[in-house]
Design a protein that fits this description.
The complex is a heterotrimer of chains A (601), B (308) and C (410).
Chain A: H1 3-16, H2 37-41, H3 45-61, H4 91-108, H5 114-140, E1 148-149, E2 152-153, H6 156-173, H7 188-211, H8 223-243, H9 246-256, H10 258-271, H11 280-305, H12 314-326, H13 341-360, H14 368-387, E3 407-408, E4 411-412, E5 417-419, E6 422-424, H15 428-449, H16 452-462, H17 464-469, H18 474-500, H19 510-523, H20 528-544, H21 552-566, H22 575-581
Antiparallel strand pairs in A: 1-2, 3-4, 5-6
Helix pairs in contact in A: 3-4, 3-6, 4-5, 4-8, 5-6, 5-8, 7-10, 11-15, 11-18, 11-19, 11-20, 12-13, 12-18, 13-18, 15-18, 16-18, 19-20
Chain B: H1 2-32, H2 39-57, H3 60-64, H4 66-93, H5 102-122, E1 130-131, E2 140-143, E3 149-152, H6 153-175, H7 177-187, H8 189-194, H9 199-225, E4 227-228, H10 232-247, H11 252-272, H12 280-294
Antiparallel strand pairs in B: 1-4, 2-3
Helix pairs in contact in B: 1-6, 1-9, 1-10, 1-11, 2-4, 2-5, 2-9, 2-10, 4-9, 6-7, 6-9, 7-9, 10-11, 10-12, 11-12
Chain C: H1 3-21, E1 43-51, H2 58-77, E2 84-92, H3 97-108, E3 113-118, H4 122-134, E4 138-141, H5 148-151, E5 166-168, H6 173-187, E6 192-197, H7 201-216, E7 220-226, H8 235-244, E8 248-252, H9 255-267, E9 274-276, E10 295-299, H10 307-319, H11 329-347, H12 357-365, E11 369-371, E12 374-376, E13 388-395, E14 398-406
Parallel strand pairs in C: 1-2, 1-3, 3-4, 4-5, 6-7, 6-8, 8-9, 9-10
Antiparallel strand pairs in C: 10-13, 11-12, 13-14
Helix pairs in contact in C: 2-11, 3-4, 6-7, 11-12
Classes of the chains: A mainly alpha (601), B mainly alpha (308), C alpha/beta (410).
């Protein structure tokens, strides 16, 4: 057991076990173990874990709320008491049962990294119990709702919470092992089948997450919390899987069969309409995610690869959209011609690219923070000009409405399709188109990143002067970053115009640029799937949590601060950047004026 | 002629307000080279802080007399802004002191959004514009040139307070021990530390002074225009940053001159350039881009300090 | 304090809190809530709502949401739709078209949604209306003013209704602007008018229509200027106006800008009245700087003379919402009532299903209702036929009605 493990164990323990009272004793004596009362638990860790698991399950089977909440039963069969119906638990209580069962099984078996896995499961139980207990308390008007009131008792949440905490504490006390590394190699076809199964499971999981809790709204007031609870349970399960080292292994397998993985992933993405998430609503949301993901990938080239911060990036999406709107044959456009959609996409991309090069041209003289401000100024100029209907091209405050749907012959993209007995929802063609578009954009990005040009961008990001000294023509290459990034946004803009059917200046304000930037950062700067993941999270969360719309931006702002503080490399960290973003105490010394230009990262 | 002079006066009044905010930007950037995007929101918070004090804690009889109400509101606004600025430094920026440059900048954007929304959600009635009581002699005097050049008393207050504070601050930075510590820290933090200066204290002081000035600006803004809204911080903050860059970042005198130039560009651009007032902001940004491209060190910046 | 004592204190505190709140619940023994004494056995029908509920336009959006909520609650209490409970489902559109599209699609895929109230912005309506029309869901907007929404892209030359499901209780700019011009030019004798707007759909449209009619009536447009929708310093604009020596200012936009603009006009020595549309009629207008003698037009007859309007204002106050009903409150309340009224006629004692949607559309089309803003009915395009407008003037810090009239083209 290494020093590092013991350190991480003790920090987690402080964060998750408020019960602890005595500070950790010197680590030398307790390597890998926790000090204080918990230390006494260590010999009984196995029993503790089993007890925790059992308590979790018992909690799941107890009643959770003393009465049926005024807004309707939450959870379903809220007052269902223990073992009235052995298989009657559903929803989050089922999740807790499963996590608890897994806890017991893993605790009793000889599994590598047993304690780490169990801790993940315990954290899941704890989070689900806290979340739902709090919710019932708040909705039920006080703690009476989850304890005892008017002769009924409902201690489900408290028992489950205790179970979760006991699990976490015993697992931690048992000593956390290092994550095991698996080096199994199977026959290629076995690995293929395995990957196929994994990706299909991911697809089903995504569909489940999207549809969890139903669509929300007044008829279904608990959609938000059901969704959050599912996320918490999944987080626990994933922590456990990750601790077992299996996730890393699957990642390595898919890396071995790269092309196969990419193809299967693409097919899975295209299969989403066949799952429970195949509603017109989710197709619309997914199409918007696609638009923003494609734009974010463009931004990723500029910020993530070339290290040029752009704060007005959404303007390129806007330019693409306005170009497409003007060429769509919409009545409000000045240029009353209708150009085929594919051609429109190309034209939009080219025009946006030209503007990208113009906006990027100050990079020849301006660097770093100042460049960020120049791009912000361009963004503001764009919004202001669009609002004032510059040259009659943007429709000003009236926008450009009634942009016709994309059509293949007489088939319009917003219609629904019947494939034999299966009825696919309206908008599914837009979804298919945007998935293909994003896939193409990702392909472009992936190839660029590993090309000569991509390496030149990264070199510029690392140290522009050194790059120039190595013979890289930094000027044109930086402008090229802006040009290509803007072209991707322009593509997406053309799509956006037709899908949304109206292009208005207020879709392209500063906040949208910040959102795009947040998507790139959240997902992981410089990585290919990062931007897509970031855009998905930033769209799905507000959709699933619409009842908290009032706090959307507040939470968004705080989230930005917290991400920068605790995980600046984003969810999917770029291998190369991981090193850069680690805190470097010497950085402070480099802040002498002369060194500054190179520090923009 | 009178139109031209009036626009000059308008520009100077708006410009001196921007200058007051710009000083905070320029000081923070000078010391820790951070574009503190949230500084505009500090200005906004100051206005709401001053208003809250007048609305909830001061008897109306006192509010009605401007010579009582004005100092109270100014001090309250400055205090609220100062507290928020210091807290922001402590909890958002200090942990990132040695992080790559992008991290604090994005944090600043996050703080900016969060502060604006916090006020919107938690200040009663802040979803819309809120009336701000007049805190100075109302009305205007007219200089009899042509149709007359109208100058409002509150505008004069704005100019006097802004220039006065800027002058005082510059003396402070030039003459006092603390001021010298600030200059030393901005030039080389590590050497300053070796000389016995605590850079953390200096940085906190910088945020506190910048915040206080922004709070004063917020209250003056409310009193000058009689209403405040949650969006006032972002837009004026951008202008103030532009002013700081124009003047040469890190330079207090530059920030003041930059602010006045911004005011004049907006007033005269709206009057004489094509597109009129609909495009007056655009001209500010055009000037910003031109200056950054052709003279990135600004009017007063020393060329070796160019960090762009 | 030692660590142990700290823990002990915390525990004691927690125990205290637990003891205090131990048995508290908000248990109601009512049926499924909200229905009061009505029969709600047939389930819940949803009134959708789309407007900005977050961000800087939320003041208007929240006022609209509360007004809809009020109408829905009243309908539930009065058992307007027998057998059903009505519920409001408010969705945030963040004032952008793509999010509005998502919200509309979400509502459209819920079979319980009978109709949608909203949106606020015309640009969001452009994307919402077709989505709802596809599913035959009625949309009634209290705030959209763009004529293309009801009369098609060629509204000036060949009006044609694009969506049979789209209605609005808001008057288009084409009525309010000219009405104001007739008042200001003919009744007040103003001949040299400066026209300012905020560059938004509502304001710019209103100002354009006003300017056109005023010129037709023989007045000069002394200046035609724009201010930013978020601006508060108008000295530049006022200096420009001042040179033209106008005898009145017409402002197309909303009260947060109009109030300070009026005050700054006076400060600059221009003691001329400012006039605006319904967007500036707000209780805080005078506090924000609006002066005695400023004018505004508003839709419908004054509430004081109209019990229905008075009833709305009182009910809104009694309901205790935390936000004021704002500029579009009364129109939203009317829109919601039109929908509920149509619903109660369509459903009668039967049940609501997808097959009822056509009936609901015709019922709304045939609306004849006395609302908070006056008599409501719709023309063949879905526009309100309510052309009664009232001119208000600021007296004693409040908008007081000056005269009421019906708009007639000059």
């Amino acid at each position: 057991m290494s020093e590092v493990t013991s350190e991480s164990a003790s920090t987690t323990e402080t964060a998750e076990a408020p019960v602890r009272t005595v500070p950790a004793a010197p680590p030398a004596r307790h390597t890998g173990r926790l000090a204080g009362p918990l230390n006494a638990l260590a010999p009984h860790a196995k029993i503790g874990m089993v007890v925790g698991g059992v308590l979790s399950i018992v909690g799941a089977y107890l009643a959770w709320s003393t009465f049926v909440l005024n807004e309707g039963a939450y959870p379903e069969r809220a007052t269902l008491t223990m073992f009235v119906e052995p298989f009657g638990v559903t929803g989050f209580r089922l999740h807790i049962t499963l996590l608890g069962l897994a806890t017991i099984v893993v605790a009793l078996l000889r599994v590598p990294a047993k304690h780490r896995i169990v801790r993940g499961l315990g954290v899941g139980v704890t989070a689900v119990a806290v979340l739902n207990g709090l919710w019932i308390t708040v909705e039920g008007g006080g703690l009476g709702a989850i304890t005892a009131s008017d002769g009924t008792v409902a201690f489900g949440s408290i028992v489950a919470l205790v179970g979760g905490l006991v699990t976490v504490l015993s697992a931690t006390a048992g000593g956390l092992e290092d994550k095991p590394v698996w080096e199994w190699k199977l026959a290629w076809w076995v690995e293929w089948i395995l990957l196929l199964v994994v990706f299909v499971l991911i697809l089903l999981l995504v569909a489940e997450v999207l549809t969890s809790g139903g669509q929300g709204g007044v008829v279904n007031p608990y959609a938000g919390v059901v969704f959050l609870s599912l996320l918490a349970a999944l987080a626990g399960a994933f922590a456990a899987l990750n601790a077992s080292g299996l996730l890393t292994w699957v990642g390595e397998v898919s890396e071995r069969h790269r092309v196969f993985s990419v193809v299967v992933l693409l097919l899975c993405a295209l299969a989403l309409p066949f799952t429970g998430a195949g509603t017109e609503y989710w197709m619309t949301v997914a199409s918007n995610i696609g638009v923003y993901a494609a734009t974010a990938i463009g931004l990723n080239i500029v910020v993530g690869l070339a290290g040029l911060l752009d704060l007005g990036y959404v303007a390129f999406l806007g330019i693409g959209a306005f170009v497409a709107a003007n060429l769509s044959g919409a009545a409000a456009s000045v240029i009353g011609i209708h150009v085929p959609f594919l051609l429109v996409m190309v034209i939009s991309a080219v025009v946006a690219g030209i503007f990208g090069a113009i906006v990027g041209s100050p990079t020849l003289r301006v660097r770093g923070d100042y460049l960020a401000i120049v791009t912000l100024a361009f963004g503001e100029i764009f919004v202001r000009s669009a609002q004032n209907n510059i040259a009659g091209l943007t429709g000003g405050a009236n926008a450009i409405p009634n942009i016709p749907q994309v059509a293949l012959g007489s088939f319009q993209f917003n219609q629904s399709i019947s494939l034999g007995p299966i009825q696919l929802p309206g908008g599914v063609m837009y979804y298919v188109a945007i998935v293909l578009l994003v896939a193409a954009v990702m392909l472009v990005f992936g190839n660029l990143k590993n090309s000569r040009l991509g390496r030149a961008w990264i070199a510029i990001r690392e140290d522009e002067d050194a790059a120039a000294a190595m013979g890289i023509r930094t000027g044109p290459i930086k402008i090229l970053a802006f040009l290509i990034g803007a072209m991707l946004a322009g593509f997406a803009g053309a799509f956006f115009a037709h899908k949304t059917a109206v292009v208005a200046y207020d879709s392209f304000r500063f906040l949208e640029s910040v959102t795009l930037l947040a998507a790139v950062i959240l997902g992981g700067m410089g990585t290919i799937p990062g931007a897509v993941l970031g855009a998905s999270i930033l769209f799905v969360l507000p959709e699933k949590l619409r009842e908290f719309a009032d706090y959307r931006l507040l939470l968004f702002g705080l989230a930005l601060v917290l991400i920068m503080r605790f995980r600046p490399q984003g969810i999917i960290a770029d291998k190369h950047r991981k090193a850069e973003l680690a805190e470097d105490p010497e950085d402070a010394a480099k802040e002498a004026p002369g060194a500054l230009p190179t520090e923009v990262k | 002629m009178s139109i031209f002079l009036s626009q000059i006066a308008n520009g100077l009044m708006f410009g001196s307000l921007i200058a007051l905010i710009a000083i905070g930007y320029t000081m923070v950037y000078g010391i820790i080279t951070l574009i503190n995007f949230a500084h505009g929101e500090i200005f906004m918070v100051g206005a709401y802080g001053g208003l809250a004090t007048l609305t909830y804690w001061v008897p109306t009889a006192v509010v009605a007399r401007w010579y009582f109400a004005l100092p109270i509101a100014l001090v309250a606004g400055a205090l609220v802004s100062m507290l928020v600025a210091v807290a922001m430094e402590r909890f958002a920026y200090r942990p990132l002191r040695n992080a790559p440059r992008l991290a604090p900048l994005i944090t600043a954007l996050g703080v900016s959004v969060a502060l604006q929304e916090a006020v919107r959600v938690f200040y009663p009635g802040a979803t819309a514009a809120i009336p701000f009581p007049p805190l100075f002699i109302q009305g205007a005097f007219v200089i009899p040139i042509g149709d007359g050049v109208v100058i409002r008393y509150t505008g004069i207050l704005l100019i006097v307070v802004s220039l006065g504070l800027a002058f005082g601050l510059e003396r402070f930075v030039e003459r006092t021990r603390l001021g010298r510590a600030m200059r030393a820290t901005s030039q080389d933090r590590d050497t300053a530390r070796l000389m016995g200066i605590d850079p953390d204290r200096v940085i906190v002081l910088t945020f506190a002074i910048g915040g206080a000035l922004a709070g004063v600006a917020g209250v003056l803004y409310g009193s000058y225009l009689n209403n405040i809204n949650i969006d006032m911080g972002f837009q004026n903050g951008i202008f103030a940053f532009t002013a700081a860059v124009l003047g040469g970042i890190g330079n207090i005198r530059g920030a003041v001159v930059g602010g006045l130039v911004i005011g004049l560009v907006r007033a005269l651009g709206g009057q004489y350039l094509p597109g009129g007032t609909a495009y007056d902001y655009v001209w500010i940004f055009v000037v910003l881009i031109i200056v950054l491209v052709f003279r990135p060190q600004g009017f007063f910046g020393e060329s070796e300090r160019v960090r762009a | 304090m030692s660590r142990t004592r700290k823990v002990a204190t915390t525990a004691a505190l927690l125990a205290g809190v637990l003891a205090l709140s131990a048995c508290s619940t908000n248990r109601e023994e009512a049926s499924s809530g909200g229905g009061g004494s009505c029969d709600t056995s047939k389930g819940t029908l949803v009134v959708g709502f789309v407007a900005p509920l977050s961000g800087s336009l939320s003041a208007l959006g929240l006022g609209m949401k509360n007004s809809t909520d009020l109408a829905v609650n009243q309908a539930n209490q009065a058992c307007k739709v027998p057998g059903y409970r009505l519920a409001l489902q408010a969705e945030d559109d963040q004032a952008t078209a793509q999010i509005a599209g998502q919200a509309a699609t979400k509502l459209a895929s819920d079979p319980n949604v009978v109709g949608v109230i909203g949106t606020l912005n015309s640009s969001t309506a452009q994307t919402v209306a077709p989505i709802l029309a596809q599913k035959k869901i009625v949309e009634i907007s209290p705030a959209n003013t763009n004529p293309a929404l009801t009369q098609g892209d060629n509204y000036a030359t060949a009006p044609a209704r694009p969506n049979a499901t789209y209605f609005r209780t808001a008057t288009t700019d084409a009525i309010q602007g000219p009405f104001a011009a007739q008042f200001l030019v003919q009744k007040q004798g103003k001949k040299n008018i400066a026209v300012i707007d905020d560059g938004k759909t509502y304001g710019a449209g209103l100002a354009d229509q006003f300017a056109a009619e005023a010129q037709k009536l023989g007045a000069t447009i002394a200046a035609r200027l724009k201010v930013g929708e978020k601006d508060t310093d108008f000295s530049g604009v006022i200096t420009q106006i001042r040179g033209a020596n106008p005898d009145a200012v017409y402002y197309g936009g909303e009260y947060p800008v109009a109030g300070p603009l009026s005050k700054q006009l006076a400060d600059a020595g221009l003691n001329i009245p400012l006039m605006g549309g319904d967007g500036i009629v707000d209780s805080t207008y005078a506090q924000l700087g609006g002066r005695e003698g400023d004018f505004a037009t508003n839709v419908g007859a004054p509430p004081e003379q109209q019990p229905s309007a008075k009833a709305f204002i009182d009910a809104y106050a009694a309901a205790g919402y935390s936000e004021p009903y704002s500029a579009y409150g009364a129109l939203t309340y009317d829109a919601a009532n039109v929908l509920i009224d149509g619903l109660s006629k369509t459903v009668g004692n039967g049940t609501f299903s997808d097959a009822s949607r056509d009936g609901l559309i015709s019922a709304v089309q045939a609306t004849n209702l006395q609302g908070a803003t006056g008599a409501i009915s719709f023309d063949q395009f879905g526009d309100t036929t309510n052309k009664v407008l009232t001119v208000y003037t600021v007296q004693g810090g409040k908008f007081t009605p000056l005269e009421t009239g019906t708009y007639a083209a000059s």
